[in-house]
Amino acid sequence: MESLKEKTARGLFWGGMNNLVMQFIGAIFGFAMARLLDNADYGMMAGIVVFTTIATELKDSGFKTALTNESHPEDGDYNAVFWFNLLMGIGLYVILFFLAPLLGDYYKNEAVVPLARYAFLGVVITAFSTSQSAWLFKNLRTKQLAKASMTATLLSCVIGITMALLRCNYWSLVTQNLAYVFFNTLLLWHYSPWRPSMSWDFEPVRRMFGFSWKVMATTIATQINNNVINVLSMRHFGKINAGNYYQANQWDSKAYSLVQGMVSMVAQPVLVDLREDSGRQLAALRKLMRFTAFIAFPLLLGLRLVGYEFIVLAIGEKWLACVPFLQILCLSGCVMPLCTLLSNMVLSKGRSDLYLWATLGLCLSQIGLMTVLWPHGLTVMAEAYVVLSVVWLFVWYCLVSRLTGYRLLDFLKDTVPFALAAFGVMLLTGWMTRPVTALWLLLPVRVIVAAMLYYVVMRLAGAKILKESLTYLKVKK
User: Pick from 162, 288, 245, 212: which is nearest to 60 by CA?
Assistant: First the structure.
C-alpha cells in the first residue's frame, strides 16, 4: 500500500503539474486577452469578481473543508452536503439576481447589473460539484483533480479568446470564468465515483455546521481582503485605473497560486492524517514550509525583477501603468503560500475558531486601512496591503506555535534563508544584466541567470529540499 509520504510526494507532483499547466495556459491566453481587451474591460471585471466569489463561498458554507477534516466521512455526509449546496446555490442566485441593481448604484454604472446577473450563474453551476471535489480531495486523488482543472482551463480560455476576437469586451472575461466552472464540474463528476442519492437527511450538515460556518466566514473574509482594493479602485478611481490594478493583481496571483495551489492540494489531508502524532505532524509542516519558501521567494522576487520587461513584451505598452502595482504586490505574493500553509495547520487541529478570528482580524484591518488610505492613491494602498500581509504571516505563525510548539527559531530557519538567498540572487542578477538593453533579450537572460544563480546558491548551501526535489523528479522520470 502507498505510504503517506509517497501520497504526499505524488500529491505535490500533481499539484505542481496542475498549477504549472493551468498557469501556463492561463498566461498564454491572458497575454492575448490583455492585448484584445481594454483596461476598462478588466475594471468592470474587478468590480464584480468579489461578489461572485463571496456568493460561491456562502453556497459552499465551508463543507468541503469540513468533509476533509472528518476522519472517515460516510456516503450520507457527502449526500447531505450535495443537496444542501444545490438548494443554497439556487436560492442565492435568485436573491442576487434581484439585488444586482444595488451594484449598479454603488459603482454608478448600470452596465454592471446585467453583467453581475450573468456572472452569478457560476454559483448554481458550482453547487453541483462540491461533494465530488471534496471526495477526490479527501482521498488525495490529486491526479484527477489536476486533470479536471487543466482541461477546464484550456477549454474556457479558448472560449474566452474567441469571444474577445468577436469584440464581446468584458463579457468575454465573465464567460471564460463561467465556462471554467462548467467544464470543471462535468469533469469532477467524471473522475469521482461518488454519486448522490435521493436521501434528504440533513443531519450530517447540522453536525458539521459548527465547524464549517467558521471556515465559510473565514473564506469570505479572505476574499474581501483580497479584493477590497479592486472594489474601492472601481468606485473611486474609475474603470481604467481599476483595470490596471486588477491586471497587476492577476499576474501576481497567478505566480503565487502556482506554489499555493501545489501545496494546498496535499497540506490539509496530510496534516489531518498525522493529527494523532504531533511530532510527525510538525515535522511534515516544517518540510512543507521549507519547500514552499524554496519555490515562492525566487518565483515572486524574480517576477518583480522582470516586471517591466514582462508586461511590455507580454501584454503591451498600454498596460505600463500596472507595472508599479505588480512590483509592489510581488512582495506580498512571497508570503501568501506560507500563510495558507500555516492556516491549514490551524484547521488540521480542528481550530476553525482561530482560523476564523485570525482571518476576520486581517479582513477588518484591511478594510479599515484601505478606507483611510484611499484618498492617498492606489500606490499607497498597495504598499499598505504588502505590509499588512507580511505582518499577518507572523500572526499565523503565533497561532501555529501555540498549537504545536513550532519554535520561532525553527520558523525563521525554515523560511528566512530562502528569502535572503532569493533577494541576493535578484540583486546580483539585476546588476549583471544591466548592459543588456533590448527587452526581448533582457527578459530571458534575467530569468536564466537568476535560475542558475539560485541553483548554485542552494547547492553551495547544501539545501536538503533541493536534493529531495531533484531525487523525486529523477524517480518520476
Answer: 212
* Residue spans per domain, the chain: 237-477
Nearest to residue 414, comparing CAs of 303, 301, 282? 282
Q: Which residue, among 111, 203, 207, 442, has the nearest Cα to 307 in the 3D structure? A: 442
380-394 mean pLDDT: 95
Instruction: Show the beta-strand stretches assigned E in 149-264.
Output: none
Cell, residue 228: 477590497
Distance CA 393, CA 325 (A): 21
Please list the alpha-helical segments (H only) found in 306-351. Answer: 307-315, 323-333, 336-348
Q: Pick the closest to residue 259 from 336, 194, 184, 200 (CA basis).
A: 336
- Sorting pLDDT into bands at 50, 70 and 90, what band is 335? very high
Nearest to residue 468, comparing CAs of 290, 341, 321?
290
- pTM of the entire predicted model: 0.79
Helix axis angle for 378-404 and 203-236, nearest 10°, is 150
- Whole-number pLDDT of residue 1: 46
Cβ count near 365 (within 10 Å): 16
What's the CA gap between 234 and 108, in Å, rounded? Answer: 10
Alpha-carbon torsion 455, 460, 463, 466, what sign?
positive
pLDDT, tens digit (0-9, with 9 covering 90-100), for 199-246 = 778 888 888 887 777 777 777 787 787 788 888 888 888 888 989 999
Distance between CA atoms of residues 333 and 307, nearest Å: 14
The span from the CA of 346 to the CA of 401, in Å, is 10
